[in-house]
Amino acid sequence: MITKILIANRGEIACRVIRTARKLGISTVAVYSDADRDAVHVKMADEAVHIGPAPSAQSYLVIDKISEAIRATGADAVHPGYGFLSENRGFAERLEKEGVIFIGPPVRAIEAMGDKITSKKTAAEAGVNTVPGYMGLIADADEAVKISNEIGYPVMIKASAGGGGKGMRIAWNEAEAREGFQSSRNEAKSSFGDDRIFIEKFIDQPRHIEIQVLGDQHGNVIYLGERECSIQRRNQKVVEEAPSSFLDEATRKAMGEQAVALAKAVGYFSAGTVEFIVDGKRNFYFLEMNTRLQVEHPVTELITGIDLVEQMIRVANGDRLDLSQEEVRLNGWSIESRLYAEDPYRGFLPSIGRLTRYRPPEEGQLANGTITRNDTGVYEGSEISMYYDPMIAKLCTWAPSRSDAIAAMANALDDFEVDGIGHNLPFLSAVMAHSRFCSGNITTAFISEEWPEGFQGVEPDNDQARLLAAVAAFAHLTDESRKTRISGTLANHARRLGADWVVTAGDCACTLSAVLSEDCLKVQFADGTAMELVSDWMPGDQHGRFVADGRPVGVKLSKASAGWRLRFRGVDLVHHVLTPRVHALSGFMPVKQAADTSKQLLCPMPGVITQVMVQAGDTVEAGQALATVEAMKMENLLKAERKAVVKSVKAAPGQSLAVDDVIMEFE
Fold first, then answer.
1. What's the pLDDT at 189?
2. How far apart are CA 458 and CA 344, in angstroms?
3. What pLDDT was estimated at residue 494?
4. Which positions ≥6 away from 270 have C-beta within 8 Å?
5. How far does CA 352 lie from the centroid of its chain?
6. Residue 45 three-state SS
7. CA gap 228, 247 in Å, rounded
8. 651: pLDDT strictly greater than 80
């Protein structure tokens, strides 16, 4: 049996592997860069080895350094997690030569499936449905445009060695094909050290559905149902669920059998995923096979009860699978929300900094029968750096039905407290509340179609507006009542609080009468409706659990701008609780004007300038490329919003910039 596993990865997946290894009585070794010296996975492991500077190209991607750590610790097996070296054929070959067990598939399977061009040819030979496209190598942008025209727009430009949304672009015309080819190649080279690109037909209004396969070294391969991964942004998954609300049993069986056939064709063992694109008529086409553990594997574990990491370890040890296809059962529904360090209000641009507050919701089986699970590799005080993927945590819920799983996720997101950086919690809450998502009518275009101008927050409906007004009143009266007692208990010294208030939030105002007694607030709204709010919240608490007319809710609240910042179900607004007189006078207050930055190109995220395409004196047209910024392994192209003349260029390639640093100025 394997006795010591080195995890050649970091963050939440390293922690995930350590937990299962510990359950099996196997000791673990963590590796870490300068940036991860105090990381959770380093503290969890039995041993830890430093492997270099923060950039992954100088640490986690250096095979020699991983090999040195293996020799130094005597590890007899390596789990690669996902990303980094997980699908690197050279790494698997190196381990094989050194007599170290690779907890993953055989080298021949990595070679056949790790390259997207080769994998599509292999899939077609195995009888798997494939998407029309050009599988040969593409020399330059001119050839990319020619091929795209022959296939017919829209097309998907993809890195052959890519994954995780890196090196992928959709092109709807010649200009986008030319631009997308170059950006995809640049990203592919920086992320994977391989700039080969291929092009295939982009299927409009598709669903992204993948099949989890599991095989052993004795020729047994089974599939563990599917995962729906259609909620994506820039080809990067944001919300996943298992099973899919779209598939019927016949389609599930057909997809599963094709996935198994492909796995057997390449002699696959260990856990792997065959990804398909599915159209509105349930026609499905092979996209790629990921020869590793997927980020979204927890939802499969929650509906099958199978620990995939444990199965990977047992298979690597030479054990046979202990279940057959007929024994696989899909139970209930599970949803995963990826918590990213990115600001949804700024086009989901990466955010870095320190987690000044990180309080995940309660985990385990809750009183209502649902399950909450949070896979993470951070803690309160952790620093989110620019060197790695921006994912902070994977929040999962399970329930007997899809609607209950969505409700459980909405509640868990309400209870998740994160501060110090920009993050996508409000957006995840908005997805859970969206009627289209709740109905299951989703495609990979869901985000772009529902928020075409970008995410600007959620406007509360009438019920939410009343609830939040009542919460703001509860917070205000609780805080003010404490202040009235500061001067003593003498009645003639106490400041008395009125019952009539106006609660404002944005452009809305809610008139109400509120009386607070102990931990209960009784509210009467102007239209005659009433609400009773009960809570043990006290000033200083940044999260409150309230019972509103018998319904439990969680609201994040904190002092802000002489009011209360309330966050609930994607709503993020500052509420002011005013007396009627103060509210009437507030209409005379001047409105602060925003600074004029229209003649500047500001850096939209913390990152490194990789290219500046213009110089002082140049005239640029609307839509013209100006500069590129690389952050968290993604290349971002900055374009001119209108015709202008460049007055000065303030940044140069290789320079690190913070958010809103000036890149160039215009006349």
1. 82
2. 12
3. 57
4. 103, 104, 105, 214, 215, 291, 312, 315, 316
5. 15
6. coil
7. 9
8. yes
pLDDT at 493 over 60: no
Give per-residue pLDDT as tens, 432-478: 999 999 999 999 999 999 999 899 999 999 999 999 999 999 999 99
Query: What is the band of 492 on the pLDDT scale with cuts at 50, 70, 90?
Result: low
Provide the pLDDT confidence category of residue 235 given band limits of 50, 70 and 90: confident
**What does the alpha-carbon distance between residue 524 and residue 552 come to, in Å, rounded to a whole number?**
20
Residue written as tokens 């600001």? 343
- Please say whether the beta carbons of 302 and 242 come within 8 A: yes
Please state, as a whole number, how many other Cβ atoms lie within 10 Å of the Cβ of residue 314: 20
The mean per-residue pLDDT over the stretch 245-263 comes to 97
**Nearest Cα to 32, choosing from 19, 45, 21, 20?**
45
Residue 45 has pLDDT above 90, yes or no: yes
Q: Which structure tokens are listed for 230?
A: 């259609």
- Say which DSSP state 397 is in: E
- Provide, for the chain, the percentages of residues in helix, strand and coil under a 3-state DSSP scheme, each rounded to the nearest 5: 30, 35, 35
Residue whose structure tokens are 């009183």: 367
Q: How far apart are the first and last CA of the chain?
A: 70
User: What number is the average pLDDT over the span 64-71?
Assistant: 98
Tokens of 478: 């609780």
Q: To which residue do tokens 């063992």 refer? A: 269
* 397's tokens: 């819920």
CA neighbours within 13 Å on the CB side: how many for 597? 11
Q: What is the pLDDT of residue 140?
A: 92
Catalytic residue among 111, 288, 296, 635: 288
Q: Which residue has the tokens 């902070």?
A: 392
- Residue 490: pLDDT over 60: no
Q: Which residue has tokens 């296809």?
A: 325
Q: What angle do CA 324, 325, 330 make, to 5 degrees?
A: 115
Q: Token pair for residue 514?
A: 């509120």
> How many Å apart are CA 313 and CA 27, to the nearest integer?
13
Which DSSP letter does residue 58 get?
Answer: G
Q: Using CA atoms, how far apart are residues 178 and 622, in angstroms rounded to an integer? A: 17
Q: Cis (ω within 30 of 0) for the bond into 243?
A: yes
Q: What is the 3-state secondary structure (H, E, C) of 487-523?
A: CCCCHHHCCCCCCEEEEEECCEEEEEEEEEECCEEEE
Taking only the tens place, the pLDDT of each residue in 630-649 is 876 677 889 998 899 999 99
* E strands present in 70-220: 77-79, 101-102, 133-134, 155-163, 166-171, 197-201, 207-215
Could you give all domains of the chain from N- to C-terminal order, each with its CATH number? 4-103 (3.40.50.20), 132-201 (3.30.1490.20), 207-424+433-442 (3.30.470.20), 462-586 (3.30.700.30), 600-666 (2.40.50.100)
Catalytic status, residue 288: yes
- Residue count of the chain, please give it: 667
* Residue 496 scores a pLDDT above 90: no
Q: Model-level pTM?
A: 0.83
Distance CA 477, CA 495 (A): 12
8 Å CB contact between 614 and 172: no
DSSP line for 342-361 = EEGGGTTEE--EE-SEEEPP
pLDDT grade, residue 220 (50/70/90)? very high
Label the pairing between strands 221-233 and 236-242.
antiparallel
